[in-house]
Amino acid sequence: MQRLDQRSRDIFREIVEGYLETGEPVGSRTLSRSGIALSPASIRNVMADLTDLGLLDAPHISAGRAPTHMGLRLFVDGFLEIGEPARGDREAIDERLKSAGTDLGKVLAEASDILSGLTGGAGLVSSPKREAAVRHVEFVPLANRDALCILLTEDGDVENRIIRLPEGLPATVLMEAGNYLSTRMKGRTLAEAAQDVREELSSRRAQLDAAAASLVEQGLAQWSGDAPGQGRSLIVRGRANLIEDAKAAEDLDRVRQLFNELEHQQNVLDILDTTREAGGVRLFIGSENQLFPLSGSSVIVAPYMGGGKQVIGALGVIGPTRLNYARVIPMVDYTAKVVGEILTRRRDKDGK
Q1: Which of 46, 184, 216, 311 has the fewest CB atoms within 10 Å distance of its CB?
Q2: Shortest CA distance to 313 belongs to which of 181, 161, 72, 124?
Q3: What is the pLDDT at residue 348?
Q4: Rg of the chain (C-alpha set)
Q5: Quick one: pLDDT at residue 249?
Q6: Is the pTM above the cut of 0.90?
């Protein structure tokens, strides 16, 4: 910013705002008609200087310029004024989230759908990390050698996972494994109890036969997320928006790359979890995001809280780098706060 004079700042801002509005490079002739009191030739000289600084680029063979990822970061940090969400956005978020009731899954799915619909990107929401103390554990036999692992917490949440059983496993083994976990985990969080249970199993101190011990380990893996694709879930809505935004073959290639990355659920959860340390909205532009460096995308994420003001999950939006940051950033932040308020009220009600 210190290396830019006022004329360069004005032209840079006009280019970025024009690009974010249209998705197209902005030329000197367009700028000269926008109120900048300079000739097209003078504007081109400033644009060349901004390009040399790495803030602008010429995406195609034309006189127009578009901001680079570094330029967008400078614009967001140095020029963008972030306010409150628009009234219409707030009302839509309030109405739809409150209509989802207090069921955790419905609230989170609705939040992802809202963000996708209002921003034109894809909505991302991570389910909470398990923080509440465990009340009861049970394994219920199903048809076709499957069993339902049920984890009931003190705050009323119920986690269900389906696991595959060895052929011919007696029902008494399911009961033995459930009783064992209930006894050792009752009143403790999953994170607190899981390590102790595993150590007891590995040191052969647990009074369980091999089948029951194996079942216990499967249950722990499912609930804690150690099993691939299990444990915490990632809710993604609006993938089609990303395809619709692609305007050229290279854009479609980037979208395909993005879709491939979204399939690696744990990696996306790791990105969302960075908000636990940041404590607020985080923005990754293009190559700043190690997960999607080749997709030309931006990710805006914010944490949501449960009872006790603890960060338990995160939500956000992924879309093209020309997202309307002034609108989307406060919208993501507001959605996270409303989700947190709903979960807090839900916990307070269950605790009465």
Answers
A1: 184
A2: 124
A3: 62
A4: 25
A5: 53
A6: no
**How far, in Å, CA of 287 to CA of 269, rounded?**
18
- From residue 218, alpha-carbon distances to 147, 161, 176, 231, 341 in Å are 11, 10, 14, 11, 34
Return contacts of 22-26, CB within 8 angstroms, 24+ apart.
23/247, 23/320, 23/322, 24/64, 24/66, 25/58, 25/59, 25/60, 25/62, 25/64, 25/65, 25/66, 26/64, 26/65, 26/66
Ordered domains of the chain (ranges, CATH): 6-78 (1.10.10.10), 87-128+232-351 (3.30.450.40), 134-224 (3.30.390.60)
Of the candidates 188, 117, 118, 201, the residue with the CA atom closest to the CA atom of residue 153: 188
As a whole number of angstroms, the distance between CA 89 and CA 332 comes to 11
Cα→Cα distances 73→16, 49, 142, 174, 244, Å: 11, 18, 53, 55, 25
Burial class (CB in 10 A: 0-12, 13-18, 19+), 334: middle
Q: Which residues pair with 151 in a beta bridge?
A: 137, 159
At 16-67, the pLDDT tens digits run 999 998 888 998 888 888 778 888 889 999 999 999 999 999 876 666 899 9
pLDDT of residue 227: 38
CA–CA separation, 288 and 277 (whole Å): 17
Q: What gap in Å lies between CA 265 and CA 250, rounded to an integer?
A: 25
Q: Checking DSSP bridges between strand 158-164 and strand 134-141, what pairing results, if any?
A: unpaired
The terminus-to-terminus CA distance of the chain in angstroms comes to 54
Answer whether 56's CB lies under 8 Å from 71's CB: yes
Pairwise CA distance, residues 68 & 52, whole Å: 11
Place of tokens 């644009």: 47
